[in-house]
Amino acid sequence: MMNKNDLKPFFEPQAVAVVGAPRKPGFGYSLPLQFKEQGWVERTFLVNRNGGELHGYKVLKNISELPDHVDLAIVLVGAKLTTTVVNEIGAKGIKHLIIQSAGFAETGEEGQALQKDLQQAAVERGIRLMGPNCVGLVNTRNRFTTIEVVEEALTPGPLGIIAQSGAFGNVLLDEIHQRGLFISKAVTLGNRVDVDESEILEYLHRDPDTRVIMMYLEGVNDGRRFLGTLDKVTRDKPVLILKSGRTDRGQAATSSHTGSLSGRDELFEGAVEQGGAIRCRTLAELIAMARVFITQPLPAGPRLGIITSSGSLGALAVDTAVDNGLILPSPSMRLVESLRENSPQWMSIGNPLDVGPSGQYPTSLVEFVNDDSFDIILAVMIVPYAVVKRAKQLGVSAKAWFGDIRNSRAGASEKPMVVAMVGAREFREEITGVAGPGIPVLDSPEPAAMALSALWKYARQRSKSGSAAPERPRK
Amino acid sequence: MMNKNDLKPFFEPQAVAVVGAPRKPGFGYSLPLQFKEQGWVERTFLVNRNGGELHGYKVLKNISELPDHVDLAIVLVGAKLTTTVVNEIGAKGIKHLIIQSAGFAETGEEGQALQKDLQQAAVERGIRLMGPNCVGLVNTRNRFTTIEVVEEALTPGPLGIIAQSGAFGNVLLDEIHQRGLFISKAVTLGNRVDVDESEILEYLHRDPDTRVIMMYLEGVNDGRRFLGTLDKVTRDKPVLILKSGRTDRGQAATSSHTGSLSGRDELFEGAVEQGGAIRCRTLAELIAMARVFITQPLPAGPRLGIITSSGSLGALAVDTAVDNGLILPSPSMRLVESLRENSPQWMSIGNPLDVGPSGQYPTSLVEFVNDDSFDIILAVMIVPYAVVKRAKQLGVSAKAWFGDIRNSRAGASEKPMVVAMVGAREFREEITGVAGPGIPVLDSPEPAAMALSALWKYARQRSKSGSAAPERPRK
């Protein structure tokens, strides 16, 4: 059995060595600069056989010169030198390594042999190893990051990321904060000769900062262990998974990327399903799902209510919701009567409730959200920009147009609620402001319906598996 | 048989009457203002039984006062008054009407009766009618529009739109110009008591300004005619279709929206397939497809080449492409050798060609695009913003990073090419500039692969049906 704290020095090292720190711009060049900017300068040591100075650091010529409290090394030397360097690091007594170097199993036979040597050296030395062919990790709690990210990506949040590929992890970190997603930890696995997806899943399961887990995989190291781990983790935290290598040709692509054997997709699909995780079909879906799972409580039932200012977009959302296990009950008689009283004759009162251009969105929204017929709310908003532009000249705000979205749920805070807004880009920010951080504003109706369906699916299976009551997201 | 020019006064009226022009802000209020802004003030006449003045127009009290050269009337009166007004308009000799009023079949039994009366009046008077429950149309050639749109939406382009719903048409018009899509004509059908999707399809087929047709439907008026029309139209112009009402519950939603009976979805699916059209599954997919069909030539074969700076995103694109009928051949030996010579050892040379952070994108791109192994090119670009930010400080441009995208295809202009860029929003505009208007920059790999697959599917079936050589898009 592995020691529970075995991974701790990866995330909370005392001091870090960068071995093979490059002198010229290119891969890994900025790493020491990044450490400096994150406040890690005094805990960082560079090694390069030429010595001298770099980015204001003194460069050590040999690994043996490193101080004894260094407990994590990041390796950037070429693939052929890696095993030698790993042995030297091991001899120094450093037990945690992140190998960023590429050129291993993903490149063919010769690389496979190099990777085997590397793995053997790690086992012999009792070294824990991330990679090779990865970029390591981010921990927003202590602002330690071996991945070059923008400042905003280090804002602490509840999302844990496991990405097989460095580039993927990197770009998620760079992009998702622009959609209001903030992370706890992010780990890139690369060719995973040692640390794998199951072990990181377990780590994030224990991590109190992580509430939802997002994974990008190209394959699974140990199918049985992965299924068992998922089954445990998903009782407490939702796991969203995007996997490539569905097709034979896609598998060939993952093999030359991270040396992964993705295996038969049906087996993976089965493991995900049985393990209680949510499989996403596209990158865009993964991000939309994360936004909804992070911000919304779990629904008490599958009854979806859709309010919309566009009948078409409402109908598109219905198809997706029904295809994925939600039901659309009629509104209560009380709601129908109340709406009928205050609406133009042509307004279509039902579910979806299509208010059209009646101007009734604000008042209808509050009544609709609070109707007992619904467990889940999707508010679809269409914003014809020409109309908005004119309205804005007359001083009409997004709030006047669609109502006080954030507070419409005040009396029904147990219901998950999502906005899907289609239309003028210029109006999106204003709507997002009115919705507040607790209600995500997605840009299309189908992904919103899909994410709400997944939320119900997760809630149902968790209640079946007899887990504790769902933890509520922080407001 | 209908007269070919029967629809002309809808798109090219001599003069227009707005009947029931509202005096208070709300639906239809801005229509006369819009006419004024588009330069139609002298050809516009308002009718409202109260007379007086509105937006600087003199308001006529009676339809009979309209000048004789008015050949199109837009009706905004309440549903219950509509048939009376239509009779008066018919008596005046106006034969083309757009009924924007709602409150007909979509609202239930009473509305169904009103709609029946309306239809009968139109038949008796020999009137051609769009709607009710629609917002009419746009013709960018003469800048005539009964839909309130922003100025930019009136820029002429090759895309024809048929939207069952007014709101849908409106929002497409408002949004798609922000993605580089410009239209020829757009028509909203509403409850289509007379003019329907097949007739407009035929009109757009003949329209020399229209090269690609995009449809949003909630149902089909006459299945047999629709199939026959599609079959004819798609021999010359691609037709992209998004339809709601797939599920029973979704059908109920369309019925209360535009009174449409969407029918069994399998039948519709079959008609689309047999008729040679492309069915899109989501709004986002519809827009991505239109961007690719508008800008790209039809491929000579199914051989897709993917160049990427992220192995993961490359693999995701592979899965989608293979699932949808494309194949990924290996690059030619000549290309492999040339790349091997100039690349770092770890670089994965194949298809996808994953250049990673080698800095080889610009040179590899040109060689890759011109390799005879490929009929279609997908260039996936991942942009880690942290890295970009630092690079920009050093003066590195998007062009230096990814190469001269636009001119990389100079020697292979017969190949469709699409960019999928994931990452920092701030870099997107620059990449779009480097790609130029002829190469769309989508924001995710899967929709790009999906659209390229559809392009090949369309090309193949068109060559089977023995159509003339594909028309090339304008550069």
Derived structural class of chain A: alpha/beta
Summarize the largest interface: chains and residue counts: A-B, 92 and 91 residues
Radius of gyration of chain A: 25 Å
Oligomeric state, counting identical vs distinct chains: homodimer
Number of strands of chain A: 19
Helix fraction bin of chain A: 25-40%
Please, could you describe this protein's structure?
The structure is a homodimer of 475-residue chains. Chain A has 475 residues and is of the alpha/beta class. The first copy, chain A, contains 18 helices and 19 strands. Chain A has helices at 8-11, 31-37, 79-92, 109-125, 166-175, 197-206, 223-233, 248-258, 265-274, 283-295, 311-323, 333-342, 361-369, 385-393, 398-402, 405-408, 425-435, 445-464, and strands at 16-19, 44-47, 53-54, 57-60, 72-75, 96-99, 128-130, 137-139, 144-145, 156-163, 183-188, 212-217, 239-243, 278-280, 304-308, 353-354, 376-383, 417-423, 441-442. In chain A, strands 3-4-2-1-5-6-7 form a seven-stranded mixed sheet, with helices on both faces. The first copy, chain A, has a seven-stranded mixed sheet with strand order 9-8-11-10-12-13-14, sandwiched between helices. In chain A, strands 16-15-17-18-19 form a five-stranded parallel sheet, sandwiched between helices. The longest helix of chain A has 20 residues, at 445-464. The first copy, chain A, is elongated and about 85 Å long. The model of chain A has no long low-confidence stretch (mean pLDDT 91). Chains A and B meet through helix 5, helix 8, helix 11, helix 14 and helix 18 of A and helix 5, helix 8, helix 11, helix 14 and helix 18 of B.
